[in-house]
Amino acid sequence: MASRHAFFEKIKQTIVLMVCSACRQSHKKWLDRQAFFVKM
After folding, report:
1. Coil, strand or helix: which one is 40?
2. CA 32 to CA 22: how far, in whole Å?
3. What angle do CA 27, 32, 34 make, to 5 degrees?
4. Would you give per-residue pLDDT tens digits along the chain (40 residues)?
5. Its domain of life (predicted)?
6. Concatenated DSSP letters for the chain?
7. Is the pTM of this model over 0.90?
8. Distance between CA atoms of 29 and 40, rounded to whole angstroms?
């Protein structure tokens, strides 16, 4: 039972990491655009 729980936790972390990296990439683009406007 405990190993199964750890297995689900690992899957959850993997999904969260995948979503976070995707979000971070789009967020970084948005931040770069904002920084560009701030410089102007």
Report:
1. coil
2. 16
3. 95
4. 678 999 999 999 999 888 888 888 888 898 888 888 888 7
5. Bacteria
6. -HHHHHHHHHHHHHHHHHHHHHHHHHHHHHHHHHHHHHH-
7. no
8. 17
